[in-house]
Amino acid sequence: MGAFHFFAVRRFPFKGTKGSVEEKRQNEMHPKPLAPKTCSNFFYFCTLKLMKMEDWELDYEWLRVRHYIKDSMQRPNLPDLDAILFLIGIQELGRWEDKFTKEEKQDLIHIAVCQLLSSDGYFEFEGRDADGWPHYKELRPIGVEGVEGQGRLLKIKVIDYFKEMQDKDSEEE
Hints:
Layout lengths: L5 E5 L10 H9 L2 E2 L9 E5 H5 L2 H19 L7 H13 L8 H17 L4 E6 L5 E5 L8 H26 L1
Antiparallel strand pairs: 1-2, 1-3, 4-5
């Protein structure tokens, strides 16, 4: 599944737009990929996955990830988004400590968010500091507004993260 791809979808009707209603529907259903820098007043950008993944699909895949983690960690309850981001942060840090401070826990969640969004060009890995903590540089702002939209984006990226991990595990076998 990999990286997010930006797609432009024409908003119809435009003044002076030619073409049948069917052509307009086809354009909305099958968007043409564009480079992110080609934005104009006639286009708006959204990710293919945010646009195409229906709510029920997202809910189903999200629940699968939550159950996978619950079962793997032998926990009685399903983890929420913050707990999963925390675990991804630990994975990306590459080491486990018995206790993390509150600030370190926030840093681990930040590491996870940066890692998840780096494949889409939002962040770039800069390197590790003297203590081995990864650092990222923000390349561009995240175009998704609102807590709900950002949560949806992160859930999709978490789903992709675990699918990629499963693909790597199956290749090694």
